[in-house]
TrEMBL record:
This is Transcriptional regulator, LysR family. GO terms for biological process: DNA-templated transcription. It comes from Tistlia consotensis USBA 355. PANTHER family: HTH-TYPE TRANSCRIPTIONAL REGULATOR, TRANSCRIPTIONAL REGULATORY PROTEIN. Residues 4-62 form the HTH lysR-type domain. InterPro entries: LysR-type_TF_proteobact-type, LysR_HTH_N, LysR_subst-bd, WH-like_DNA-bd_sf, WH_DNA-bd_sf. It comes from the Bacteria.
Amino acid sequence: MQPLDWNDLRHLLAAARAGTLAGAAADLGVDATTVSRRLAALERALGARLLERAGDGRLRPSEAGRRALVHAEEIERAAGRLGGSVAGADRESAGTVRLTAVPLIAERLLVPALPDLFAAHPGLRLELVAEPADLSLTRRQADMALRLARPRGSSRSVVARRIGRLAYGVYAPAAMPAADAEALPWLTFDEAWAHLPPARWIAAALAREGRPAALAANDGATLLEAAAAGLGRTLLPDAVAGRDPRLRRLSGPAGPAGLPVRELWLLVHAELRGLARIAAVAGWLAALLPQDA
């Protein structure tokens, strides 16, 4: 098969849609001779007759032509997406961005800082999905994702970078004396999240103390509220729990041999990373989130 000239596919699409060479020429802004020449070159490259003249004189796609049109339309749509993506790269940071994060981060860190984002970018609209489970960027469930671990595997459709860290501490009710708070039962994550570093740390503490946890939950936001209600003590990010006047920190400083420190990773769908609105949200997150110690 001869090399294809992708521009010839535009002429095939135009001729099939218009049904005449003259109509295709008018749609493309060229003359009918050019359309005929381009179609002939495409048929030579593919080695098949693509358009046939029906009894009414109009052009109709052959079986080979129908198959070629399916691929031509896919290329046309892809070109449209490319044009929209590149054109949006230099525009004002306006439009909708769908961002997902775990509820604890979304509710306690991101929401209080949203007024600053919207003041800097009035045309921006954020869809904030507070979800413990990881939404898929490749399936376009979100445009951006804030994750508490380095992404596993690799994907050409997703770009990831570390933008900060979260140090953890043990927190209990602020109204309770420290000595009494140290004796409170543990509040931990349920079995579905037992693999998380905070859950493993609490599991080790439970094993040392030889008693069960008072409560297991599927998210840190629930554990924070339970600790504030006096149900026990738990492990929480300092950047979140340290701002809550209902809580007090019981433990010493975080470090490699002690309390967990988790990485914050920002994931962006590769097709969107050049958009001004995506850059605006990424910059806001980088300035907001705790940086490396």
